[in-house]
Amino acid sequence: MKFFSKKIGLLLGLSIAMIAGLYAQNQPKRKIDGVVGVVGDYVILESEIDKTLLELKAQRIPVDNLSKCDLFERLLEDKLYAHQAVQDSLSVSDDEVTKFMNDQINRMVEEVGGIDRILEFYNKKNEEEFRDYFFDIVKQNKLTQAMQQHIVEKVTITPEEVRQFFKSIPEDELPTVGDEVELAEIVVKPEISQEQKQKVIDRLNEMRKDVLENGASFFSKAVLFTEDKGSAMNGGFYTITKKSPFVKEFKETAFSMAEGEISAPFETEYGYHIIYLEKIRGQYLDLRHILITPKPTEQAMRDAKEKIEGIRQKIVNKEITFAQAAAASSDDKDTKQNGGVLRDPQTMDPRFELNTMEDRELYFLVNSLSEDEVSPIAQKTDRTEAKSYRIVTVNKKIPSHKIDFVEDYIKVKNMALNKKQADELQKWIGKKIKDAYINIQGDYRNCQFNNNWLKN
Q1: Among residues 68, 182, 176, 97, which one has the least CA distance to residue 449?
Q2: Which positions ≥6 away from 398 have C-beta within 8 Å?
Q3: Which residues lie across from 440 on neighbouring strands?
Q4: How far is the C-alpha of 351 from the C-alpha of 353, rounded, in Å?
Q5: 138-185 pLDDT, tens per residue?
Q6: What are 127-137's pLDDT values in tens digits?
Q7: Is 352 helix (H, G, I), strand (E, B) or coil?
Q8: How far apart are CA 105 and CA 14, in angstroms?
Q9: Angle, CA 383 vertex, CA 379 and CA 384 arms, to 5°
Q10: What is the CA 355 to chain-centroid distance, rounded?
């Protein structure tokens, strides 16, 4: 969703890498399918096992030691999570599923070069049939993720538990950490003039007036004009609660409105919005919105580049340190007060392993830098798709090494927490298997499972 903060779940969804990996395999595109398992209301088809293998390969997860029984058990677990999520009334709204699905399909189409190739792989007649099929997959994955998060949300770990976890790893089994860097960044954003902002406000006000006074369709205007790509195809539609991970200003505006009202334009970090509140259903709001982001002028972009060029030159000339320049001039509110130091947004680790950096633009910018060297100026596009300029420096390089308790404490802590969460999930599965309807068919009844799926 373009304008709300995202939480990272335990379950990986379909990705560009996955769909690209699927096409990279010389697998038959059509096979006779059959039901090999049932968990609650969910069935497992033979073909799902093959696709799970391809997904893992595409995500670069080692699969050499995984048997079909292992993959089948993974699917049993996923179905059990989804089944119990429904039983526990964990909500995953259809608009959330549709938004995620649309994002994934758009990315897959871009990656593989057309919807026809996706339809061919999945053996679907048309896009509508594929979307119906893919919707069910995404919804089940979202339910699985919601259930997993619910199970582990209260799992915490103490420093002593981290220490004991590390001591329990035999020295010859300690994982190796690849080459790492500690980075700092200075960002200069182009100034958005009041004139540009007012143009957007006026445009949104015109749309609002056209709907209220002339009976124009808010749905159509959202499809045509909103810059929130995730909701455009649905006419800007979302269902939210006060706990939904939308930005504060968006929720405050939505929950202050009356049913049928259209808000005045308001600002968030993503730009300017108007909201049409369609229906209030208890704690749920059904709404549509239109987002338009003010764009900097070409002159503003040139001014921003000139400003960061001056900052870079002062650092190179030793007139000011990188940290001092970040505090004085960086427009990144998250890093300017700590010398521009970057952290992994998921783990908060200040160290980035070069070979696994997700931001490939950042990787190419720093890969050849020496310590304390300042990168060339590069353009940056943030999560709101706004463009700015950046310079980066390498504060420290850490060669590949066996993981160390002190030096790599954040990594060790995350490993220990993941292990504790995994143990909690396994305990939960063991309990829930007893009560759930489970049916395993054919040769898969001969598998040696980790859990008692056959209820022997």
Answers
A1: 68
A2: 177, 179, 180, 181, 182, 351, 407
A3: 37
A4: 7
A5: 899 999 999 999 999 999 999 999 999 999 999 999 999 999 999 999
A6: 888 888 888 88
A7: strand
A8: 9
A9: 90
A10: 20
For the chain, helix, strand, coil in percent to 5 are 50, 15, 35
Residue 388's identity, in one-letter code, is S
Residue 64's Cβ-count burial label (10 Å; 0-12, 13-18, 19+) is: exposed
Structure tokens that stand for 99 in this block: 């938004």
Q: Is 69 exposed, middle or buried (0-12, 13-18, 19+ CB in 10 A)?
A: middle
Q: Give the angle subtended at the CA of 151 by the CAs of 150 and 152, to the nearest 5°.
A: 95
Cα–Cα distance between 336 and 321 in angstroms, integer? 13
Please state the separation of Cα 366 from the chain's center in Å.
Answer: 24
Cβ atoms within 10 A of the Cβ of 223, count? 16
Report the residue count for the chain. Answer: 456
82: nearest Cα among 150, 5, 156, 6: 150
With the C-alpha atoms ordered 315, 318, 323, 329, is the resulting torsion angle positive or negative? negative
Rg over alpha carbons for the chain, rounded to the nearest Å, is 25
